[in-house]
Write a structure and sequence with these properties.
The two termini are about 25 Å apart. This protein has a single domain, classed as TIM Barrel (Alpha-Beta Barrel). It has about 325 residues and is an alpha/beta fold. The chain has a ten-stranded mixed beta sheet with strand order 7-6-5-4-3-2-1-8-9-10, covered by helices on one side. Helix content is about 35%, strand content about 15%. The protein is globular. Strand 2, helix 2 and strand 3 form a beta-alpha-beta unit.
């Protein structure tokens, strides 16, 4: 497996407490308890990435925009000729800080948006003000006469499904208003200690109806939904599965973008932080770490839970399905 990018977790500080967050047990809201990557550690990471021939990162957290040196971090990464593929944010940091970042880097902003009822009036106004700042506006820069090709270089919205009756209309309306081409969607997976609200295999079928309505409405409105993690084909009808594969970025085998945590250890993904071995950047190159972690994950990927033992998707084509999120196999394997 070739790794071209990593998720760089620069801080565990966050100003939200989303019930479905897959790093719920790790994030803090107290600034005094926060763990930020230092600029010295950033320089060390940059050197390691370059020696590993990795040329892209995604900045994540916590809330990465709450890192006290986020502007300097962006400058140092850009100076090293490493591409900042995206910045994942909740959009709830002062507008001027977003403006400073957009003045020095052109990147994809992935903004997670929850039900409007979960925000105060001031928070909702701040979020919408920041989204307006981050949206793609330059209609004169075209590729092949299509503005669509460049809109994904600016703003994407994200939603996580974790309730059977979950609202989603607000994010579609927001995408239409802001001329956003993509919405990244996912179903909530467990945090490493399973302290968050997540959708296990047995409850996935209950979430499916609202998920399918969301996907069909996105496509009807000309918005491309992109699946973040994985969904098992067995809960969908053949027609539903064709729709997801063709129009909604569906996949059932994960190919992770490895996570580099503030303690300088690399993990397979946030849900698997305490389930698989982790490796320090001082020990080996990223590609060697990726090779080892894929081998570690492969043992779980090949494990057949009782529900999968007679499934054609799992038995006949092991590259087609891993039986849902690997985190659910940890206690079984």
């Amino acid at each position: 497996m070739i790794i071209n990018s990593v998720n760089l977790f620069i801080t565990n500080l966050c100003n939200r407490c989303c019930p479905y967050c897959d790093v719920k047990e790790w994030i803090v809201q107290d600034k005094g308890a926060a763990h930020h990557l230092s600029l010295k550690e950033i320089d060390r990471i940059i050197d390691w990435l370059k020696r590993s021939n990795v040329n892209a990162v995604q900045l994540v957290g916590g809330e990465p925009m709450l890192h006290p040196d986020v502007v300097e971090i962006v400058k140092r990464i850009l100076k090293s000729r490493i591409y900042i593929r995206s910045i994942l944010t909740n959009g709830l940091v002062e507008t001027e800080l977003y403006r400073k970042i957009t003045d020095i880097v052109s990147t994809n902003w992935l903004v997670n948006v929850n039900n409007p009822d979960t925000y105060s009036t001031e928070e909702w106004e701040l979020l919408n003000r920041n989204l307006e700042l981050l949206r793609w506006k330059d209609d004169n820069k075209l590729i092949g006469n299509k503005k669509f090709d460049l809109r994904n270089l600016s703003l994407q919205l994200a939603i996580t499904f974790y309730q059977p009756d979950q609202r989603y209309n607000y994010i579609i309306e927001m995408a239409k208003k802001l001329d956003v081409a993509f919405i990244r969607y996912d179903v909530s997976h467990p945090s490493s200690d399973t302290s968050n609200i997540y959708v296990d295999f047995e409850h996935l079928i209950k979430v499916k109806p609202v998920l399918m309505r969301f996907l069909r409405e996105c496509v009807h409105e000309g918005i491309k939904p992109n699946l973040d993690c994985v969904l098992p084909p067995c809960i969908f009808t053949p027609e539903e599965m064709r729709f997801i594969l063709l129009f909604a970025g569906g996949k059932s085998i994960c190919h992770p973008c490895l996570d580099l945590m503030p303690d300088l250890r690399v993990v397979y993904c946030t849900s698997m932080r305490n389930a698989l071995p982790t490796y320090s950047i001082q020990d080996m190159s990223l590609h060697e770490i990726a090779r080892r972690q894929m081998l570690d994950a492969g043992k779980l990927r090949e494990h057949r839970p009782p529900r999968c033992r007679n499934c054609d998707n799992f038995l006949n084509n092991p590259t087609m399905c891993q039986g849902y999120c690997l985190r659910y196999k940890v206690e079984e394997a």
